[in-house]
Amino acid sequence: MWRHENTDFLMLDKIPILAKETGIAVYDFRFRDYFPCHSIMDAVDQPVLLRVGGISDYSDIASMLNERGFRLLLSEQEHDRASLLENWYPLLEKLTPYSVTYEQFPPLEIVLQDFSFPVFIKGNRQTNHHKKSQCIINNPDMFRRLASEWQKEKYLHWQKIAVREYVPLRIVDDVSFPNMLPFSYEFRVFFWKQQMVGCGKYWCLGQDYILLEEDKEQALGVAQKAACILNVPFLAVDIAKTQQEEWIVVEVNDGQESGYAGVNALSLWSNIIIAEQGKDTV
Q: 178 partner at 20 to 30 Å CA-CA among 12, 39, 54, 208?
C-alpha cells in the first residue's frame, strides 16, 4: 500500500491523505482533479486520513505508518468503536434496534432466548451486498439455511454474527431489485470532528428520493447525537425512518472506509476543509 501503484499520498489543504483507487465508483475520488494538492514525501505533524477501501487490519497500517513517522487520524480504539457493532451498539443502544453479537453462528435455541422471528442478521461489520435472504430471516428454516451458508460466504465467514431486532422501515422501493433488501428511506451522514459535513440518500439504485424538509431536524438530530456519543474524528452515520415514524440509527462506520452513497463527494471534502479551518459548514 505504501507508494504502490494507484496509491497517492497527498496534502489536501492541511489534511494528509493516503488514498488508493479501489475501482469502486461510490468510494473513489481523485482529489487532485478538484483541489490544489501536493505530494507528501516526509513526515508531517498532522494525522493521516486513509481512503484505501475496506481495511482488514487497521493495526498493521498504523504500525507501518508509525515506523515512517506518521500517525493515523483515528486511533485503533476509535476505528474499532466506529466499525464494529459489538463496540458501537452499547453506546447507541437507545438510538438503534436491539442487537446481540455472537462469536460464532449461534444455535437457534440460543437466539430465540432473546429474539422472535423475523430477525435481521448481518456480520459484525457488514452484510453480504445487502442480500435479502441473508439478512431478513423469517423462520427457523431460513435461519438454518443461513447457518449452513455463512462459512461459505466471502463477505461473512470471517465476521462475528450480529442478530438484530427487525424493525420495519419506511420503504421507497422494494421492486427494482427484489433479491436485495428493500430500499428504505435511509440516509448517510458524515461528521468531521462531530460537525456535519455531508448528507445524502443511502440507496443509489432504484427510485430516487431525498430527505424531506420536514424530516431534517429530527433525522439529523439523531445522527448528530450518535456522532457526539461516539466521538471519533471522521464518522459515517446511517439513519432511517421506521414505519412508526421514528428515526433510528441503522449503522455507523469509520468515515475513512465509508462509500459516499448519495453524498456529493466534492461538497463533502470542501466542507471538511472548511471545518478543519475552524469554520462552520452550511
A: 54
Residue 2 has pLDDT above 70, yes or no: no
Question: Can you tell me the distance from the alpha carbon of 120 to that of 87, in angstroms, rounded to the nearest whole number?
Answer: 18
Q: What residues contact residue 277 under an 8 Å CB cut-off, 6+ apart? A: 13, 14
3-state helix, strand, coil in the chain (%, to 5): 25, 25, 45
Domains of the chain: 7-74 (no CATH), 80-84+169-276 (3.30.470.20), 98-165 (3.30.1490)
The runs of H, that is alpha helices, within the chain are 58-67, 76-83, 85-92, 108-111, 140-150, 213-230, 265-276
How far apart, in whole angstroms, are the C-alpha atoms of residue 89 and residue 161?
13
pLDDT at 278: 84
Using the predicted structure, report yes or no on whether residue 5 has a pLDDT greater than 70.
no
**Which DSSP state fits 181?**
P
Who contacts 50 (Cβ-Cβ below 8 Å, separation ≥6)? Answer: 17, 18, 19, 61, 72, 73, 256, 257
8 Å CB contact between 16 and 46? yes
Q: Are 230 and 218 in contact (CB under 8 A)?
A: no
Rounded CA gap, 223 and 230, in Å?
Answer: 11
pLDDT-derived band at 3 (thresholds 50, 70, 90) equals low
Q: Which residue type sits at 202? A: Y
Nearest of 61, 105, 49 to residue 235 by alpha carbon: 49
Grid cell for residue 17? 491523505
Look up the pTM and report it. 0.95
In angstroms, what CA-CA distances link 35 with 29, 238, 273?
11, 27, 10
